[in-house]
UniProtKB/TrEMBL annotation:
Modulates cellular lipopolysaccharide (LPS) levels by regulating LpxC, which is involved in lipid A biosynthesis. May act by modulating the proteolytic activity of FtsH towards LpxC. May also coordinate assembly of proteins involved in LPS synthesis at the plasma membrane. It holds the Pfam family TPR_19. It comes from the Bacteria. HAMAP family: LPS_assembly_LapB. It is found in: Cell inner membrane. The chain crosses the membrane at residues 6-24. The lineage of its organism: Bacteria, Pseudomonadati, Pseudomonadota, Gammaproteobacteria, Alteromonadales. Residues 356-379 form the LapB rubredoxin metal binding domain. Fe cation binds at C358, C361, C372, C375. GO terms for biological process: lipopolysaccharide metabolic process; regulation of lipid biosynthetic process. This is Lipopolysaccharide assembly protein B. It is a single-pass membrane protein. Belongs to the LapB family.
Length: 390
């Protein structure tokens, strides 16, 4: 069997060798891109599919590094990485890096592939150092910037993520403006924690410069105004959320309510929500209006409004609140008992229900993550709509 395998290997090696020679000659004449032709990749695929890992290992070790075989080494390395055998990939690429006979035209590609191996192995500092060296590379500079942005995100180094993100964003055909806005917001959040409101505001303006639709920036800007006691300014900013993305209005309502308490503008707050209701009949808007009626005009007015709204739009949260209002004036024992039963059902349906869902991967949870914890995309987690949601 061993002999048979060796013979087969030899046959494949001869075939690949012939093709490498042919490619090298063709390249010498045309001076084209050093990328491998697809039929060589096909031949390598046959090698990987047909032989055991041990045979491939010994084949790689016995294969000399020459200008003709560099492409093959690179393909074998990337095969190992794709198969999760990162250590083997690192050995193949490190071997190439240490060889002075590797042609200059391949040097950047070898370094890039080794950096990707380090990424796959979680060795971020080593990957970072190689990607930084490739910054000026014509073929791999832009790709390296993308990976650097990824590394700095993983390390939560938002200053560098923003710096390299801006450089990557400037590349032709690249648009990561939503991501850049969130990097600026991350920095602003840190500044807010340190009470550096002036700098935080500047970072948030920068965020809105990248992405005018960045709801997070306006919510944070409003919180800064509120921390400084500037409630009217906060209201102006919070009312912009509707125009940015109406699905996020529920995030602004509790803050608007807080501002109205300090400004003593309960009815103004309610009128604003009533105006919104025409375009946005989310549970938060409906409950915001009902609660405002309850505070200013009493529970019967709140009940009347909520009943009328629930006849037009089914909402579990609305029903739950209606039970609360009706319980206030319930007198008979049977009414109180019935309301208690309904309340128990609505609460058990609402408890533990996810409130937000990622539009990209479907991840659902009770917290609003600006970066999806599952697919790592930015700005894709939104409040869940429907009878049980908004
Ligand atoms: Zn996701």
């Amino acid at each position: 069997m061993d002999t048979f395998v060796q013979w087969l290997m030899l046959a494949v090696a001869i075939g690949v060798g012939w093709l490498l020679g042919y490619t090298a000659k063709k390249k010498a004449y045309s001076g084209v891109d050093p990328a491998l032709p697809s039929n060589l990749k096909d031949r390598l695929k046959i090698l990987f599919d047909t032989y055991s890992e041990e045979v491939i290992d010994s084949f790689v070790q016995s294969l000399e590094v020459t200008s003709e075989t560099v492409g093959m080494h690179l393909s074998i390395g990337s095969h190992f990485r794709k198969n999760g055998e990162v250590e083997k990939a690192i050995l193949v690429h490190q071997n190439l890096m240490s060889r002075p006979e590797v042609p200059k035209s391949y040097a950047d590609e070898v370094m890039f592939e080794l950096a990707r191996d380090y990424m796959a192995a979680g060795l971020l500092d080593r990957a970072e150092s190689l990607f930084l060296q490739l910054n000026e590379s014509r073929s791999f500079g832009s790709k390296s910037l993308k990976w650097l942005v990824d590394i700095y995100q993983q390390e939560r180094d938002w200053d560098r993520a923003l710096e390299y993100g801006v450089r990557y964003h400037a590349q032709k055909g690249v648009d990561i403006s939503v991501m850049l806005a969130h990097f600026a917001c991350e920095l602003a959040e840190k500044l807010v924690e340190q009470h550096h409101y002036w700098d935080a505001r500047n970072k948030l303006r920068e965020a809105l410069g990248f992405d005018r639709g960045c709801v997070r920036a306006n919510l944070l800007l409003a919180k800064i105004h509120m921390a400084e006691g500037h409630y009217s300014e906060a209201v102006v900013v919070l009312r912009k959320v509707e125009g940015q993305d109406t699905r996020f209005v529920p995030e602004a309502i509790p803050l608007l309510h807080e501002c109205s308490k300090y400004l003593k503008t309960e009815s103004k707050f309610r009128h604003y929500l009533e105006g919104l209701l025409v375009k946005n009949d989310s549970s938060s808007v409906i409950l915001g209006i009902a609660d405002s009626y309850n505070r200013e005009l009493g529970v019967l007015e709140a009940e009347k409004f909520l009943e009328g709204t629930l006849l037009k739009k089914s909402s579990l949260k609305g029903l739950d609140r209606l039970v609360d209002y009706q319980s206030v004036n319930a007198v008979s024992e049977s009414d109180i008992r019935h309301l208690m039963i309904i309340k128990r059902v609505t609460q058990s349906l609402l408890d533990g229900k996810p409130v937000y869902r990622c539009e990209s991967c479907g991840f659902a949870g009770e917290l609003l993550h600006w970066q999806c914890p599952s697919c790592k995309e930015w700005g894709v987690v939104t409040p869940i709509q429907g009878v049980e949601g908004e």
